[in-house]
Write a structure and sequence with these properties.
Elements lengths: L4 E6 L13 E6 L2 E5 L5 H8 L3 H4 L2 E3 L5 H4 L1 H11 L6 E5 L3 H12 L11 E5 L6 E2 L7 E6 L8 E7 L2 E5 L9 H5 L4 E5 L15 H6 L1 H4 L4 E4 L3 H7 L11 E3 L1
Parallel strand pairs: 3-4, 4-5, 5-6, 10-11, 11-12
Antiparallel strand pairs: 1-2, 1-13, 2-3, 7-8, 8-9, 9-10
Bound molecules: zinc ion (2 copies).
One zinc ion (ZN) binds next to loops.
């Protein structure tokens, strides 16, 4: 097995509940860097953690286009250009990723030229189609459709060497979650609520996850994206990731 570092830059929900940064999780392996989700706080965190990553992230993969998972890419893209990045970057996600990126970019910085000093590559992901996203054998990504109101959200199975990681993005409980998590070393699930009865049509609860844990069949469960209720019940438990958590596999 090769080495893999997982850095939880941000683990919070859309409201930064509990003072947590927006969701952004970095996978680092053999000199390659994959960022999954990029909320409004992500550039700030990269500047604190390791500014060299602004030049070295190979791909940003989005679970969906809600602002707390996506809108930070505009600031990161601007920083990459202004600081002189020349290395290409891949933006990957649900099928309208290119359109969503330019909509957000033009809204935030109208009139800025589209051509920057680096190449932006876009990669559309479709459910169940595995892609070697950098085409170098590093990150094999299989999208699994989640259920998140009217927003298309893809969970991802990520294979890095022999490690298998699942990440849900935002979702309600749905019958694809066991397929997403089955046989994984780590499953990173959103957990906005604590009680099943608190869940409406967008998110998961700790009770639902706990009740269905055997079906998920993962070696290690890690929860992120807590709202106030989940935070009150889970803050002291190891299962809930904290901002800055670093796992070395
Ligand atoms: Zn979210
Ligand atoms: Zn969302």
């Amino acid at each position: 097995m090769g080495n893999l570092k997982i850095k939880f830059l941000g683990t919070g929900d859309a409201l930064n509940t509990g003072g947590r940064a927006n969701q952004a999780i970095l996978f680092q392996s053999n000199g390659k860097n994959l960022l999954v989700d990029c909320g409004p706080t992500t550039l700030y965190l990269l500047q604190q953690y390791n500014p060299a990553l602004i030049f070295e992230i190979n791909a940003a993969l989005f679970t969906h286009f809600h602002g707390d998972h996506f809108i930070g890419i505009v600031a990161l893209d601007l920083a990459m250009d202004r600081l002189g990045r020349t290395k290409p970057i891949l933006y990957a996600g649900p099928e309208n990723v290119e359109d969503q990126f330019y909509k957000a970019y033009n809204l935030c910085y109208p009139g800025l030229k589209r051509n920057v000093h680096f190449v932006r590559e876009f990669q559309k992901h479709s459910p169940y189609q595995t892609k070697d996203i950098l085409q170098d054998g590093h990150f094999q990504i299989t999208p699994i459709p989640m259920v998140h109101g009217s927003m298309v959200c893809l969970g991802y199975r990520i294979q890095i060497h022999d490690y298998k990681i699942a990440i849900s993005g935002d979702t309600v409980w749905n019958d694809q979650l066991p397929a997403l998590c089955n046989g994984t070393d780590i499953a990173i699930l959103e957990c906005k609520c604590y009680y099943a009865q608190s869940v409406k049509d967008h998110h998961l609860s700790y009770e639902q996850i706990e009740q269905n844990l055997p079906q998920l069949n993962t070696k290690r469960l890690i929860l992120v994206h807590p709202g106030q209720e989940a935070l009150e019940h889970l803050a002291s438990k190891d299962v809930l990731a904290k901002d800055g958590l670093e796992l070395q596999l």
